[in-house]
Write a structure and sequence with these properties.
823 residues; alpha+beta; Beta-Lactamase; 5 domains; 6-stranded antiparallel β-sheet; elongated; PAS-like_dom_sf
């Protein structure tokens, strides 16, 4: 049997009469009681006859409607065959069927019957045969389960009949996905900001759908993964994945498939299908069916009222918001390209047209704006699909709406056969149906600054600049990291550097500060930085002064470098050198013991002496060279009489002999002071010790006894520089009293003076290492000290640090300094 012939309605008991036969039952057989042709009986003209004719007419219409429905079903089955054979979607199959019928000159019903009959001996042929039998009046055969194509057509019909995405989701689950074992489905709509909104769902509870109605940009879900990757994502077992998704709590071990849906190179949303249990690999025909469902979802999402229509041609037509986007591009200082999608004949995205170029545009190849404006992107920049993957980034932003930003991307322009490369910061964003491409070409200054940042990072170097006029301190980010301080914390000025360093390195830092701030010369120093997090790093600071035309100090700039690894390497090398050079080791050990002895008795810094109504601070600066270790000493102690003894002295010479002699004199002075004698008598007894009980030691010293109750100071000196009194805004030395060197004569007397101190007075006692210079007299050195010392600072400790920092001495000698302030 072939159904290509015209189908006639079968003649039988229920068949309608021929067109020329009279209506009603009398037309079937003449009545024996009437012989006159054309005569009409009462029954014929009664209401019963007319009712019978109406029934027959309605039966005919029902049979015609059934035949038309069967014909549509046959066409749908033929479309399903084309979907299977051509591996296409429902819409493409419908167009192919209409095109083939038009070319063959037959109706779609006739062509559908031929396609079904010729598609092997499967169930579709039986359906076609059953339709032909019903058309001829044969009893209908029992219909089997619908095929894949039939399910697709049923799902499509239900989705199109519903008119919205929610109805489409329900139709997909009921007619196409449930037979595959799926339990739920979600259709996500992608926003312009790469967010996801639940446009339709089926199989989930209302509460679950409400919780997942919106997924903000940047939240990692299974649907977002399919959106960003722009390819199907298959999950065998959700318990093995860390991605959250709708309905996961109900089926924690269920399988999932998420497919991006869209047309014209733009992803409109995501179709997510859920199975109750683990999902096994699906055969190709099932995957093609799911792809067809995704295509159906894409058309459904495009028809939403809030969804702009996708471009279908070379998009030079007016696009909503395009004029505002052009105005925005013209207001930017960076080069901007406004790109519109360019579609191929098959409706797929193939390129982007440069719709607008702003006035700040700078072409990497040096071409004018007119050479780029209006051109296709791949024609203007064919290298965009090369190593930089610029075109792929633009295509992804247009498809998903998720912006892309990167620094130092290489842009390559092809001029003739020469490729010109430029490094730029690139920003790509989607605005409506267009793409905004912004780049900032890196100039030579930026490139050199970038190289400098890398060099500082690799060398662990941090730079600084300190304005001494305004007090402003500027650090770079690397220096904050070296100090272990947050970037919003205030920088540390140079004057406060000792507070962040190890106590044993304070002397080195003070020498460094004196060289830079006072001598105005470049200098460097190594010290141990104690960070707030408890980590100790070995650092080197290098600084140079910045002077104006008149030689005045304006600012200091320099750098810190972390030399911890270098320090430990040097320690290891020093140990090796010590083993190879025994002689040098002995010399170094001798110097080290001398220095340790001196530091043990004369530490560089000492806790302030507590006394009512009196502030006392002491400083000791050893010689820069270990071989120049001298005999400078100081002492500040409260006696049994409640008086306070203040002494400074200087033993002649350097080395271990000077250090040991200093210990003898210092201890002897302490022992003699408990007798209660005055300063002059103490110096006389100390002279006897120096002359008779030591190996011809000579020394200078100044000794004072302060009475806290009377606020008086009795003092005497033995060849030493007089103390300095700071009162008000002036600094002056105390009157000179007689007294020769200790140890010069066997027996000698010393003069004594008494001084009344007032609240706020500051008294300084020091050794010659603070002021002595080779190129000037002692009087000139003392005058410079008076200028530096006054006026007194608010804090006595800072006053002594300032004196050491700005000391003009150049003899590399030890320095002792005692400060006393009456409160």
């Amino acid at each position: 049997m072939t159904t290509s012939e015209p189908l006639q309605e079968p003649v039988g008991q229920d068949a309608p009469p021929p067109p020329d036969a009279p209506a009603g039952p009398s037309a079937l057989a003449p009545s024996p009681d009437h012989h006159v042709p054309g005569a009409r009986t009462e029954a014929e003209t009664s209401g019963v006859g007319r009712l019978a004719a109406t029934v027959e007419r309605l039966r005919g219409e029902i049979r015609a409607a059934q035949a038309a429905a069967d014909g549509r079903a046959l066409i749908e089955l033929a479309k399903g065959v084309l979907i299977e054979r051509l591996r296409c979607g429902p819409a493409v199959a419908a167009r192919q069927l209409a095109s083939l019928a038009q070319e063959a000159g037959v109706s779609q019903l006739e062509l559908a019957a031929d396609i079904v009959n010729q598609s092997s001996q499967d169930h579709l042929a039986e359906v076609a045969s059953g339709f032909a039998s019903r058309a001829n009046g044969d009893p209908p055969a029992e219909q089997a389960a619908p095929s894949i194509g039939a399910r697709l057509r049923t799902a499509e019909s239900g989705a199109l009949a519903g008119g919205d995405t929610q109805a489409a989701a329900q139709s997909l689950l009921a007619h196409a996905l449930a037979p595959l074992g799926a339990c739920s489905v979600a259709v996500w709509s992608a926003g312009s900001d790469a967010s996801l909104a639940l446009a339709g769902h089926a199989g989930f509870g209302p509460g679950e759908a409400d919780r997942w109605c919106y997924v903000p940009p940047g939240v990692s879900t299974l649907a977002r993964r399919a959106l960003t990757e722009r390819q199907p994502v298959h999950i065998t077992d959700m318990s093995e994945e860390g991605l959250p998704s709708i309905g996961r709590a109900y089926h924690p071990r269920g399988g999932r498939i998420a497919l991006p849906v869209g047309t014209g190179g733009r992803v409109n949303g995501v179709l997510e299908i859920c199975w109750p249990g683990p999902l096994e690999p699906q055969p190709p025909q099932i995957l093609r069916q799911i792809d067809a469902l995704a295509e159906l979802c894409a058309h459904t999402l495009e028809s939403r009222p809030d969804r702009p229509a996708p471009p279908s041609t070379d998009t030079w037509a007016a696009t909503p918001g395009l004029s505002e986007l052009v105005e925005l591009a013209d207001g930017l200082y960076d080069p901007v390209l406004v790109l519109v999608p360019y579609m191929g004949p098959d409706g797929q995205l193939t390129d982007f047209r440069v719709h607008h170029v702003n006035s700040s545009f700078v072409d990497p190849a040096g071409r004018p704006r007119s050479a780029v404006h209006g051109a296709l992107l791949l024609e203007a920049y064919p290298m965009a699909v090369g190593g930089s993957e610029l075109f792929e980034k633009i295509e992804r932003v247009y498809a998903t709406g998720e912006p892309f930003r990167t620094r130092r991307m290489t842009l390559t322009a092809l001029v003739g056969q020469v490729s010109l490369a430029a490094v730029a910061d690139v920003s790509i964003s989607r605005q409506g149906g267009c793409v905004l491409l912004i780049w900032r070409i890196e100039d030579e200054a930026a490139r050199l600054a970038h190289l400098l940042q890398h060099a500082q990072r690799l060398g662990r170097i941090g730079g600084f600049e300190e304005n001494l006029t305004t007090g402003e301190v500027t650090w770079n980010d690397q220096l904050f990291d070296l100090y272990g301080r947050p970037h919003d914390a205030p920088p540390v000025p140079l004057e406060a550097l000792t507070s962040y360093a190890h106590a044993d390195d304070a002397a080195a830092i003070r020498r460094f500060l004196r060289t830079v701030l006072h001598h105005r010369r470049s200098s460097s120093a190594a010290f141990r930085l104690e960070r707030p997090d408890g980590v100790t790093r070995h650092m080197r600071v290098i600084a140079e002064p910045v002077l104006d035309a008149d030689g005045r100090l304006l600012s200091v700039r320099g750098a810190y470098q972390d030399i911890s690894s270098q320090h430990w390497t040097e320690v290891a090398l020093a140990a090796t050198r010590d083993q190879l050079a025994h002689t040098e080791q002995q010399a170094a050990e001798s110097n080290r013991l001398t220095l340790q002895l001196q530091h043990a008795i004369m530490p560089p810094a000492q806790a302030p002496l507590s006394s009512p109504g009196l502030q006392i601070a002491v400083r000791y600066r050893p010689a820069e060279s270990e071989s120049m270790v001298g005999g400078d000493w100081y002492d500040a102690v409260t006696l049994p009489s409640k008086q306070i003894m203040l002494c400074v002295g200087d033993v002649a010479g350097h080395g271990i002999e000077a250090a040991t002699s200093m210990v003898v004199l210092r201890n002897a002075m302490r022992g003699l002071a408990v007798t209660g004698a005055g300063p002059a008598q103490l110096l006389s007894w100390l002279n006897i010790v120096a002359h008779h009980l030591t190996a011809h030691v000579t020394a200078t010293a100044v000794c004072g006894l302060y009475d806290p109750e009377r606020h008086t100071l009795r003092w005497a000196r033995a060849g030493h520089l007089p103390p300095v009194l700071l009162r008000g805004q002036k600094a002056a030395p105390l009157p000179t009293v007689g007294g020769i060197l200790l140890g010069a004569l066997a027996d000698t007397d010393y003069e004594e003076r008494e001084l009344s101190l007032e609240p706020g007075d500051t008294l300084l006692m020091y050794t010659d290492g603070l002021v002595e210079r080779r190129d000037e007299s002692v009087q000139d050195s003392l005058a410079r000290l008076l200028t530096t010392a006054g006026p007194p600072a608010a804090d006595l400790e800072q006053q002594l640090d300032r004196l050491l920092t700005h000391s003009a001495s150049d003899t590399d000698d030890d320095t002792c300094l005692i400060g006393v302030r009456v409160t």
